[in-house]
Amino acid sequence: MSDSASSTPPTPPEPPVVPPSPPAAGTGLQPPVAAGLACFFLLLGGIVFLVLEKKDKFVRFYAMQSVFVGGAGVMISIFLKIAGMILGLIPVLGKVILFLIGIVSMLAGLGLLVIWVIMIVKAFSYREWEVPFLGPLARKQLESGTPGSV
């Protein structure tokens, strides 16, 4: 046996250290943390971070997208509840319609949950991701200038 067989394999080189990005101007948090928190709290978090953060485009985009996704979730929920209340009054079909609205409501909630988790993961990963349909609307709203934007 040779000495080289008993020696330990060389250790892989250390990954390069990436310097942290500067904190977002209005919040003092790192941009991925601020964007992740805006996504985590959806509608309210988005509003708070839109008010606090005036310069960081990454944080503002996720905050606006969070407002849009949270607002869409609230509107869908209200619409389905009102539709259930009205259509549930139909004598024979009411129970079937309520059952179908319940299924649609669960699917909408599941879809919102999936979008919410993806938004949080992408924001904390410092990767920009547009929610289909709502993401481009959020970007367009930011580009057109929202109240309080610089």
Describe the structure.
By secondary structure, this protein is an all-alpha fold. The protein contains 6 helices and no strands. It has helices at 3-6, 31-40, 42-52, 57-87, 94-124, 134-144. The N and C termini lie far apart (72 Å). The model has no long low-confidence stretch (mean pLDDT 86).
Average predicted confidence as pLDDT: 86
From the helix content, strand content and strand pairing, which structural class follows? mainly alpha
Number of strands: 0
Compute the separation of the termini in Å.
Answer: 72 Å
Strand content: under 5%
Shape: elongated
Main pleated-sheet profile: none
Total number of helices: 6
| Unreliable runs | none
Taking Cα atoms only, what radius of gyration do you get, to the nearest Å? 23 Å
Order of H and E elements:
HHHHHH
**Fraction in helix:** 55-70%
Topology:
Layout: H1 3-6, H2 31-40, H3 42-52, H4 57-87, H5 94-124, H6 134-144
Helix pairs in contact: 2-3, 2-4, 2-5, 3-4, 4-5, 4-6
Offer a concise description of the structure.
This protein is an all-alpha fold. The chain has 6 helices and no strands.
Pick out its properties:
150 residues; mainly alpha
